Amino acid sequence: MLSRVFGFGRRPFESLSEQEILALAISSEEDDGRIYRAFADGLAGSFPHSAKVFEEMAEEEDGHRDSLIELHRERFGERIPLIRREHVKGYY
Predict the structure, then answer these.
(1) Most CB atoms closer than 10 Å: which of 10, 21, 33, 79?
(2) Cα–Cα dist 48/51, whole Å
(3) Are the C-beta atoms of residues 72 and 19 closer than 8 Å to each other?
(4) Which residues contact 40 (CB under 8 A, 6 or more apart)?
(5) Whole-angstrom Cα Rg for the chain
(6) Is 9 contained in some domain?
(7) Mean pLDDT over residues 11-24, rounded?
(8) Which alpha helices (H) appear in 11-47, and where do they start and end?
């Protein structure tokens, strides 16, 4: 149990439960949205049109995240397990 929480080793994707896969998808959408917003912030001063594209991509990721959270609520309830890309072997 502690290895799942504190990352004593990266787990193979095949070992994840359905709930953990869904939680991983949620956290990936969150991360991607943050990355796109960081790109937008970096581009805004010199390339506002490109920054807008990244802002729109971030909004799209937010929509994906919201849909996945709703699916998690329906199947597993409110508590989403903590699992991130870096916890899974070969998942980037």
Answers:
(1) 33
(2) 5
(3) yes
(4) 51, 52, 54, 55, 58
(5) 16
(6) no
(7) 97
(8) 18-43
